[in-house]
Amino acid sequence: MSDIFTTATQNWVEKVVIGLNLCPFAKREWVHNSVRVSVSEVNDVEQLLHALVVELALLSRQPEIETTLLVHPHVLQDFGEYNQFLDFADSLLEQMSLDGTYQVASFHPDYQFAGTAAGDVENYTNRSPYPMLHILRESSLEQAINAHPDTGNIPVNNVSLLKQLGQQHMQDLLDECHR
Question: What angle do CA 39, 47, 141 make, to 5 degrees?
Fold first, then answer.
């Protein structure tokens, strides 16, 4: 069962994240096979927190893994609940004394930035086939940001591109990831 979730996530990384260059840092890590896609079959928030602990421990033991996409298709389907869970994830990093070492970025099929309407195309910069937590190494992220000529314009350029492509095109791309 987890193969369908893994495949859809891999398709999303290749077609949307890298294909549209939404994250200029992603391609290098994807090509170097240092992105881990981990599908968790958990069904509740407590189990998901445990799965996050396991992934953080694995990243700490395996520096060759640059980043993990922790896909959790059976829990936090509601974006509001997912968004509230992010506070628990951040608290967990603090409790484990890992804040500043790792950060958790958020992706969800119904992602909605504050101040936007649900159908606004800019939300697709953080929309994924399934709810997921993206665990990033802070030091690597800092290096990538320092090496990039203009990180401040990445979100602006992404929104501009997505507005050109349109909401239907972005939804079609997201839907294609499931095939």
Answer: 55
